[in-house]
Amino acid sequence: TDTAPRFPEGFLWGGATAANQIEGAYAEGGKGLSIQDVTPQGIMFPRVDGPTEDNLKLEAIDFYHRYAEDIALFAEMGFKVFRFSIAWSRIFPLGDEETPNEDGLAFYDRVLDELEKHGIEPLITLSHYETPLHLAEKYDGWVNRDLIGFYERYARTCFERYGDRVKYWLTFNEINSVLHIPFGSGGINTPKEQLSEQDLYQAIHHELVASARATRVAKEINPEMQIGCMVLSMPIYPLTPNPDDAVAVMNADHANLMFSDVHVRGYYPGYAKRFFRENGIELNITDQDAEDLTNTVDFVSFSYYMSICESGDPTVKADGPGNIMGGVPNPTLEASEWGWQIDPQGLRIVLNQFWDRWQKPLFIVENGLGAKDQLVEVDGVKTVEDDYRIAYLNDHLVQVGEAIADGVNLLGYTTWGPIDLISASTAQVSKRYGFIYVDRNDDGTGSLDRYKKKSFDWYAEVIRTNGGSL
Ligand code: BG6
């Protein structure tokens, strides 16, 4: 048997969240509206005109007021790292102002103070599906080049304010998801059906330039800061051994890998240029853009929930349920209650693929099972017996250990939603990921009280033993 050490010393164990899915307080402290405040059904669904009462995100799990209590619970599990996002519209309520909103900045000072108190390293996402609504409505989001400057100002403000106490930063959450959810991911107000590929790829280009500029600015302010890109990862398998299917996989992979290829290498790969050529896409890339792109990332982070198949046969349906990307369902795999197919080995495969391709440190910043939980009473204590969640996470972490044994350089692992939060795709709270149960229901009722699930102790033990208990 392989006796090589699995998880390295200093491995960053923890959990990951996003502002709009936990904070609530959508109009407090001078916060402006974000695209989340007008998507009550989730980012996969069309927007509405303004905030509506059925939007669970407006109050979410009230982390804005309960952050100290929640961080203390993370500390009790032994978290080494906590990933959260800054709500851009707390710092720049409209997005295009010259000066930031001090109240918003002060809130994240308080969060950072609390993390520091418990010795938990912060990992901050600058843009997690939270573009200020004004930027979507006035500029059509990232389609407009002006967004680069607004984002740069926002990033600089955050780096200057927090850069001496925050080492790890991510520029855009799941940047490749803009291919599928242009409003949710890119603040692009033009309805998806009317958005041209030309505008979509120009928007992508603007995001990639903005990300690279943020990296340059961070290094100018404090070279200790480590900047990562963040992509939605999903290994794609050929549905059959037919070479047509293998080519379909290659093409589908390229569509996603382009984002991190540019982030890591600093220029567009040949396959992307071919795609632009053959689809009549003419990107406006200035000399300054090309120069900016050379500010490449320090590490590559990604989410992992599921794998998918591809087929070269146009009659095969490619709309598997329940995920942003679509794809052909895998006949050999089971799925979660939301139709996301469960594939622990896929995580090992993706870790190897990314490490082989880029030789950059990797960071798994999302992984987990969204499931319906039942609050029960055991010995007078309210809890959830979530053995299914423990099994999911354990199986995935065993594969992470395999990948580390394969030689992959991995900085850390943060589960998605260590505390129940509002789902991104469907805006439900009943799609629970947490080790901590939050008493809130899809109809908005509930006390917001927190309860430890069975998985709470399980994860604490995994961290305490640095993976030895898996
Ligand atoms: C990722 C997002 O797509 O998956 C998160 O970065 C999201 O914001 C997570 O919550 C899980 O998806 P969902 O739809 O179950 O919340």
From TrEMBL:
UniProt cross-references to InterPro entries, sorted A to Z: GH (IPR017853), GH_1_N_CS (IPR033132), Glyco_hydro_1 (IPR001360), Glyco_hydro_1_AS (IPR018120)
Keywords, sorted A to Z: Glycosidase, Hydrolase
Record bears the keyword Hydrolase: yes
Listed EC numbers: 3.2.1.-
Database matches in Pfam families: Glyco_hydro_1
Entry GO MF terms: hydrolase activity, acting on glycosyl bonds
Gene3D superfamilies: Glycosidases
Recorded superkingdom: Bacteria
Catalytic residues (UniProt): 366
PANTHER family (alphabetical): 6-PHOSPHO-BETA-GLUCOSIDASE ASCB-RELATED (PTHR10353:SF122), GLYCOSYL HYDROLASE (PTHR10353)
Annotated family: Belongs to the glycosyl hydrolase 1 family.
Protein name, as recorded: Glycoside hydrolase family 1 protein
Species this chain originates from: Demequina zhanjiangensis
